[in-house]
Amino acid sequence: MQNCKSGSYVLLTVIAAVALISAASIAAAQNSDRPWMNPSLSPEERADLVLKQLTLDEKLSLLHGNGMAHAPQWQMPLSKLTNGGAGYVEGVERLGIPPLVISDAGYGVRDSGANGRYSTAMPSSLGAAASWDPDSACEFGTVIGKELRAQGFNMTLGGGVDLAREPRNGRNFEYAGEDPLLAGTLVGNLMKCEQGQHVVGDIKHYVMNDQETGRFFVNAVISKRAMQESDLLAFHIAISIANPGAVMCSYNRINGDFGCENPYTLHDVLEKDWGFKGFVISDWGGTHSTEKASAAGLDQEQPMADFFGPKLKEAVEAGRVPMSEIDDHARRVLYAEFLSGIVDDPPQNGVVDVEKGFEVARRVEAKSIVLLKNSSTILPIVPSKVHSIAIIGGHADVGMISGGGSAQVDPPGGNAIMPPGKGATIWQKPVWFPTSPLKALQAKLPSTKIDFDPGTDAKSAASLAKSADLAIVFVYQWLSEDMDVPSLSLPDNQDALIEQVASANPHTIVVLETGTAVTMPWIDKVSGVVEAWYAGSSGDKGLADVLAGDVNPSGKLPLTFTSSEADLPHPNRPEIPSTSQAQAGDVADNGAPSSNASAHTGYAVHYDEGGAVGYKWFEEQHKKPLFAFGFGLSYTTYAYSGLNVDSGAKTARFTVKNTGKRPGTEIAEVYARLPKGTDEPYRRLVGWTRVALAPGESKAVSVAIDDRVLKTFDEDKNAWTMTPGDYQVLVGGSSDNTPLTGILVVR
Ligand code: BGC
Asked: Which ligand 1 atom is nearest residue 209's CA?
């Protein structure tokens, strides 16, 4: 028996060895037939090798989508292969080139509910930007990259980096605020790490997609200099950090031409000046032509093949589109596939690491919360002093709100404010995650009496508030793709609710769950304000960590909060004038562009404020915001001293001291004012660092000043210029509080 066993063992070993040897030799033989499969070659070399093998039809198949799973108006024969996601692009199976299986993934993988899967919702990108932490952004991207792969996707449509130039923009929660260096750095790190998981990365919506009103036809009018120094700079920084496989061109027009057929933004800037080697993918339904778009630099139409299918083939055969252009488009798609690793390491379906997602989402949220007001140290909650808490409004008993549109992540169990089984995600219907701050606080503060009032009747809410030591009012502002908010006021009479609660109990704290800035007419009447953003899958716990003081808040605002919309560069909400040719019917019910959208040319938004976005505008106009860009309090205090600017190395060195009694992390911000003659009367953020400090501890830190944010763009020369002269360097804890000043001399 023994012999028999060991005999079979030897036999099995021999068979296994032979199998391994023959698999290896088959692979070697295949690879000698397929030299592009050699991972030691560069993505460029590999793409070139494949390109030589492709027929015209194979090349063209890389240049368009095949419909979108859940969009009835976008169905094609291969739509079922989209894996329930946003798009599918055929591969070239005979050569080992995989198809692209594409999903939206703004703050988590989209459509998981519709597909019977689970995804983690990270905090909104705007929220995460309040951490000013590239490492958090990297963790955010890593979680999403892993979950995309576990669900069978190999390409993401995340990476929004349009600037919050229009604070009422319904997609601001998908972006990273108003400053090009902050937004570009954070989204760049997020996408670098997401693509690092071997999915094709994407940065979007290129460019000037700064409002949703009339998004399919609005013409964004702006000078080249202003665009270069603001929105384009954010994209350039993000793209240079992430090196993404793809950039998504936007729906809107830019100075006349649509984003997906704009020779200036696509060809001149992205491809020529920045040397972007990946492919340009159209926003869904954002392609408007064949020859013009192809010549401008659009590489792939999505999600259909209306312009880059048979029409493109016909144009090539008739000689109206040169073969070199087709080769360039196809090479770029292939390059992105090799660059991202999806050829060498295709996704393996698996179980999403739910626990890891929760853990990262909680940590990122806790770092992103911004403490805006804390009179008489009302926070953190001290259980020995606070015996009863009234929690009011915002559905805080069951959940926290999330951002809508194509970024929407489906919560487990459905919309938490709907009856069980009735909470399907519906386009343009607000969705609450089942993350109850009430329950999270009860778990943190077991000896405190905590009661809830829904806030639907302000009188009843005020009477509960009166009976408690502390009142916390949860308020929300819902944002979604395909709409802008009518104003920065909280909707649904929540301002009045706060006023009434605060009059009943001066110890009132407001927790904001918002996707952009809001106005706060009640600010002087409340004791505390905490901005929690859209808080994601562990938002309740991250928030409870901060309210109870287990985490000292360190977030700083990534966009200005104005006290009045009258102070904005565009005081009136974005609105399509009735005189414009654009009318109802331009937008299909599900937010997709209807076929007549491209006919409307009348509606333009003139960005006359130019590069003066957000805090720059407020400084230029000598206006005082409610809360400045870069502002955020802590449970401790910090002092700044000893600025030393090294003009040669372009660094600012200074010391930050924790002058309070709790450990904390200070985001130390460095700004510069350009020399006279540059015509820029405002400071620019040029660097920052996060400094962790024990009570009483001091640290000397050094912040490198990024050259790109010291330069101005010369339209005549189409070049960046560093103007010689004295640059005033300003250092502190907020854009409007910079106690240290120095001079950086540029010769
Ligand atoms: C959005 C994109 C999204 C695409 C696919 C478009 O409507 O603007 O951000 O990636 O749809 O869902």
From this structure: 8
* Of 704, 701, 693, 698, the residue nearest 729 (C-alpha): 704
The Å distance, Cα 70 to ligand 1 centre, comes to: 13
Q: Which tokens belong to 745? A: 């001399």
Asked if the model's pLDDT at residue 92 lies above 90, the reply is yes
Residue nearest atom 11 in ligand 1 by C-alpha distance: 284
More confident residue, 87 or 706: 87
pLDDT in tens, 542-600: 999 999 999 999 999 999 999 999 999 999 999 998 765 444 334 444 456 654 454 55
Ligand 1: distance of its center to the CA of 715 in Å?
A: 32
Q: What is the mean pLDDT of the chain?
A: 94
Ligand 1 midpoint to CA 455 (Å): 35
Burial track 86-98 (b if 16+ CB lie within 10 A, e otherwise): bbbbbbbeebbbb
Query: Residue 368 and residue 554: Cα distance in Å, rounded?
Result: 7
Residue type (1 letter), 621: Q
Reported as a pLDDT band with limits 50, 70 and 90, residue 725 is very high
**First and final C-alpha spacing in the chain:** 89
**Cα–Cα distances in angstroms (integers) from residue 375 to residues 296, 378, 527, 547, in the given order:** 55, 6, 5, 14
Instruction: Please give the helix or strand (H or E) that residue 31 lies within, else none.
Output: helix 2-33
- Give, in order, the Cα–Cα distances in Å from 358 to each of 365, 444, 542, 715: 10, 17, 10, 48
Q: What residues contact 9, with CB distance under 8 A and at least 6 apart?
A: none
Is the pLDDT confidence value at 344 over 60? yes
DSSP tag of 488: S
**pTM flag (> 0.85):** yes
pLDDT digits over 24-33, tens only?
A: 455 555 578 9
The protein residue whose alpha carbon is closest to atom 9 in ligand 1 is 406
Q: What residues are in contact with ligand 1 under a 6 Å CB criterion?
A: 86, 104, 157, 204, 283-284, 406, 481, 591
Pocket-testing residue among 111, 153, 406, 586, ligand 1, by greatest number of atoms within 8 A of Cβ: 406
What's the chain's Rg over C-alpha atoms?
27
- pLDDT at residue 592, rounded to an integer: 61
Given a contact cutoff of 8 angstroms between Cβ atoms, the answer to whether 492 and 473 are in contact is no
Token pair of 84 as six digits: 């329930």
Cα of 104 to ligand 1 centre, how many Å? Answer: 7
Cα–ligand 1 centroid distance for 535 (angstroms): 22
Q: Which residues pair with 432 in a beta bridge?
A: 401
Q: Which atom of ligand 1 is nearest to the CA of 592?
A: 7
* Interacting residues of 627 by C-beta distance below 8 A, sequence separation 6+: 372, 557, 560, 561
User: Helical H runs in 341-436?
Assistant: 354-368
CA 406–ligand 1 middle distance (angstroms)? 6
Distance 284 CA to ligand 1 centre (A): 6
Q: Determine the Cα–Cα distance for residues 127 and 478; give it in Å rounded to an integer.
A: 14
- Quote the CA–CA distance of 589 and 607 in Å, as a whole number: 29
Cis peptide before 382 (omega within 30 of 0): no
**From ligand 1's centre to the CA of 434, what distance in Å?**
25
- Take residue 271 and report the two structure tokens written for it: 């491809």
Beta-strand relationship, 388-392 and 449-453: parallel
* Ligand 1 atom, smallest distance to 110 CA: 12
The dihedral sign for the CA sequence 47, 53, 56, 61: negative
Q: Report the atom number in ligand 1 closest to the C-alpha of 406.
A: 12
